Amino acid sequence: MTENYTKLNVDAISFDTDNPRIKIALEKYGEHLNAERIHFALRSASDGEKRTSSFTNLRDSIRTSGRAIAPISVVIDGEGYKCIDGNTRLAIYKQFLKEQVDGNWAEINAIVLDNANQRDIEAVRVSAHLVGAREWPAYEKARYLHYLRNQELMDYTEMIALCGGNKTEIERQIDAFHDMNEFYRDVVDDSSFHIDRFSGFVELQKPQIKKAIFEAGLDLKDFGEWIRDGQIYRLADVRQLPKVLQDVEARNVFLEGGPNSIQDAIKLLDQKSQEESGTTESELTLDAASIFQLARVLSRRIQDLPYSEVRTLKNKESDQSLDRIRVLEELAGHLQNLLDDVTE
Question: What is this structure's pTM?
Fold first, then answer.
């Protein structure tokens, strides 16, 4: 493969409909896919859930500069070209050209990848999307890893070389993508499918989680329904499934309850633990409490923290705010170090 820097007419360049950041968004359009829908998907993928539109920021920067600083990457596609990196920049140029914005938007700086095979193209996509600076949903990353493994038949050594990480992490992401699609996406309609539920399926890949589900006489279809129905709303609570399912009372509270019922089951287990130890929460002193008792109390207090206090911390509205944030950051650091030591 060789790289040639040049200027290309934007009308000769098509969007990459296999772009991993927007592929899932484009699938629903089927035969009705067109440039406007691709443009919308690119803008939505760039903005995500951020309050400030990154698409708008990029568009304003390009307009002010009079050009996109970084060239796009294209491959020859028939009589024209296909953009495999820089689709958002290309969309902005096309928009400016259509809206007759002042400036020269008919041509764009590009790198033409000559004699690029599919592996070369995937390597560019990986560097631009999986390990680039731009954030995009973990579900989409896992989808792309799944594609590389099962469609491109790329082995784990190649994927690790391109994407970083290790085999266990990549396997877990791919398996989570598979389970999410089979046991969650297939039990909801498109409007109810939320990719932000993905981390729950990553947690599911830990052996003790699946083992607990199977030993309770349940299966992964049940797990998908718990996610769908909100019985597990806080996805970190997936880690609590083994102890919830192993206790008959807690299991019944969880399975027979409504939204967030796993929290009710966890509270029941906490109460039973306190009764067995002969110590109630109100009787605990800070020095006498174990770190696990403190963690339970702190977890509940964080969940119940009034928004007014969160806002005070966020806006640094009091002299104590910075000190309190530092204390929380120090706690988070110690806790993460402990978790790194005791988890996989």
Answer: 0.58
